Amino acid sequence: MSKQKLVLIGNGMAGVRAVEEVLQLAPDQFDITIFGSEPYPNYNRIELSKVLQGDTEIHDITLNSWQWYEDNNIKLYPGETVLKIDKDKQIVRTDKGREAAYDKLIIATGSLPFMLPLPGADKEGVTAFRDIKDCEKMIECSNHYKKAVVIGGGLLGLEAARGLLNLGMEVDVVHLADYLMERQLDQTAGKMLQKELEKQGMNFLLEKQSEEIIGTDRVEGLKFNDGHQIEADLIVMAVGIRPNVSLAKESGIPVNRGIIVNDYLETEVPNIYAVGECAEHREMVYGLVAPLYQQGKEMAKQICSIEGDGYQGSVLSTQLKVSGVDVFSTGKINEDEHTKSLKLFDDWNGTYKKVLVDKGKITGAVLFGDTSDGNRLLSLINNGAAIEEYTESERSENSGADLISSMPDEEIICGCNGVTKGTIVEAINSQGLATVEQVKGCTNASRSCGGCKSLVSDLLEHTLGDDYTQNEKESICTCTTLSRDEVIEEIKLKGLTHTREVMNVLGWKSEEGCSKCKPALNYYLGMLKPTEYEDEKESRFVNERLHANIQNDGTYSVVPRMYGGVTNAEDLRKIADVADKYEVKMIKVTGGQRLDLLGVKKQDLPDIWSELDMPSGSAYAKGLRTVKTCVGADFCRFGTQDSIGLGIKMEKKFEGLNTPHKVKMSVSACPRNCAEGSVKDVGVVGLDGEFEIYVGGNGGTHMRKAELLYKVKTEEEVLAVTAAFLQYYRESANYLERTSAWVERVGLDQIRSVLDEKQTFLELNARMDEALSVVQDPWKEAIEDNRLLRELYQNVKVPAGTN
Amino acid sequence: MEKLLSKVFVSRLEDLPEKLGKTVIIGELELAVFKLEEGKVRAIENRCPHKGGVLAEGMVSGEHVFCPMHDWKISTRSGKVQEPDTGCVQTYETEVKNNEVYVIVPGK
């Protein structure tokens, strides 16, 4: 039997989700063709506000990659608009002259932003906030202009305003009503919201009706009907949306406000369906993602001839996506003569909760400040629950975990995608999921607006018990709840290639991370892909960026490499000359047997390095610092081994290596251990005919005596064991975890059991060689790179009184 | 006394390092000029209120800089030290025109 032809008009969230549902129900039943006016694959429109707010980049909000269309054999025509539906011949025609026949047609043309028909609305600098193009326009505008005005104090307008603030613009929000988000909030919550947003820097003009946009070619201001006038370089209209029904209307498909559909999302014309923001069901047009996905599900069943209950309409809930503000509302918002309400208003902590009750049943809720109850309330309303169900469970509840355990399995956790507690728990148990990201990947929960992430996290904790709590406690930093292991797993799984991408894809809470996670991610990425990853100098602490140690007065210190702590007259002469010429404030012998030139000006660093012509001593590095050695067999009367020779070999092998934290090593030639191997990360002690290798020692804040790892016979074995040990440390320690803490945490037995595996031992050595293969001397690199020199080492000096 | 401001050319935009700071010395004044995401430029006093750390060498995250001395977090927009620490550094207006970066500083 040949496949039926399914055509989708509109490559957006509702339509594509419906196609996904169809593919799930009947993978081989249809040849699918999709037309989309925008030149992108399906992306998450809800997250445009995050793009604007700088939390995410455009390529990160893609929901279905180009590959997805290919993998599912879908013919996609992006940037192509359908102009005509011939419902008799069952053919659609596009603006590029293409024709496509259909057996089933889905119209998912979405909405158009409503543009106020003000005089001057066609001027440059007036935009809607609906798609990627609008977003780009605003970002571009913020680079050149200062004053933004957003017309509309609803959900969209406020998200746009927050984004524009983040882009560095001054923002006035103009609103017709006397408080914000009046369709989703009551006056109390609306006023609290206003106060909070004013604190964030927004300026509000309420009860203002716009009359005219002023300016010559470009917008210069906005005039109101009371004669008042404000300046503006950019005007964003966010006053609402209207269903995009013109194609349906022109093609003779019955339309009211939206395209009229029945419970099965069928229009009045056979074989034509409509779904999403363009559809009108029981006189309701929905503009939020959850109902649209529910519609898609029911429609897919109908298209695949599977019996279903049909779509029954939705109770709406809203969550504002503005950082630092938690607002939630659902169902009925305002009291009337029939309703009673439960209200909690905490002015001090800035929280407000109102639950509306009609004839004993919960019919609506408004939450401000603490929205953790939101999804539960929505689910209670959908189940027609009595108010007691809410109040009683609330009294007994102590924590998120109790709340989670008291939820029935059919309770919706992710409102956007309609994922229940039962589905998530089932997926966690049957597929061994351990992270929010994995749950998202498997069940779609938290894939859209991300508002339920904390609930999903609670659910993981509830299901996995201590295993999960453990992970949570060890999150990399406060920017994320993910642990080091989870982040590394995700980097591998998703092939993430730079720190910013990790932060975006893994849902970092702060836009660009912090001083803890940035260098950590930079290290992990480099550790995972040593030959491909390009180290990010902006993710490095100053010392590692400039390859010198910053001192308390802003000067630097220079420590040249002296392998094994051995120097010679020529090097000493160069050091002395440099010290004189650049007026070095002090020359100090370090604990690691090196010379430290202190008090060097930043701009002198490259010249000093060039004149020294010695490799960097890495005294600033999270990597191998020094290999300290004793005099050894050549001179010492007790010496049994050539400690200096071995020390130099070790230092030459591992110099320049990046490790989670600094690594200090030593080689002594007898058990007197003059090079102090008991307090080194790796301390080698030479005996007659063999070497002892001690690890995990520390003489600093975490005083710890090194433990004996192995006894070996040859220098080659010392080098190989050290390489395997350090590589295992590199791969499994947390960033900034010294070997002392790591050995203690992991246990020497575990480390030994890993290195005992011959194959593993060889692989660790091979990966170490790979990591070492890209090492370059950073001083030489800097001297030879003019751009680096200019960007990092030169100051800009402007004499006073110029310009 | 009337406060005089002058606009001083600092650098071409492309010559400033991405997501890093630059030490800019204008007469007696020492500024840390940052090029943030999307080429946004901010200028603040190059001195942490804690122990005088050079902020131009700090790590930049979003619109904050972390002082290289003791990791104080400071807004490059408001100059405010972020909690739990307290304090403030002077901020200076910047302007980017035709890829030329200017700062507005007192004096003529």
TrEMBL record, chain A:
Domain Nitrite/sulphite reductase 4Fe-4S, residue spans: 621-758
Pathway connected to this protein: Nitrogen metabolism; nitrate reduction (assimilation)
Domain Nitrite/Sulfite reductase ferredoxin-like intervals: 551-613
FAD/NAD(P)-binding domain: residues covered: 5-283
Span of domain BFD-like [2Fe-2S]-binding: 412-461, 476-525
Keyword hit for Secreted: no
CC cofactor: [2Fe-2S] cluster; [4Fe-4S] cluster; siroheme; FAD
Transmembrane segments: none
Record has Oxidoreductase as a keyword: yes
Cited PANTHER family: NITRITE REDUCTASE (NADH) LARGE SUBUNIT (PTHR43809)
Name of the protein: Nitrite reductase [NAD(P)H]
Organism: Thalassobacillus devorans
Source organism phylogeny: Bacteria, Bacillati, Bacillota, Bacilli, Bacillales
UniProtKB/TrEMBL annotation, chain B:
InterPro entries recorded: Rieske-like_NirD, Rieske_2Fe-2S, Rieske_2Fe-2S_sf
Residue stretches making up the Rieske domain: 8-103
Record-annotated membrane-spanning stretches: none
Keyword Cell inner membrane annotated: no
Coiled coil: none
Keywords assigned by UniProt, alphabetized: 2Fe-2S, Iron, Iron-sulfur, Metal-binding, Nitrate assimilation, Oxidoreductase
Pfam families, A to Z: Rieske (PF00355)
Protein name: Assimilatory nitrite reductase [NAD(P)H] small subunit
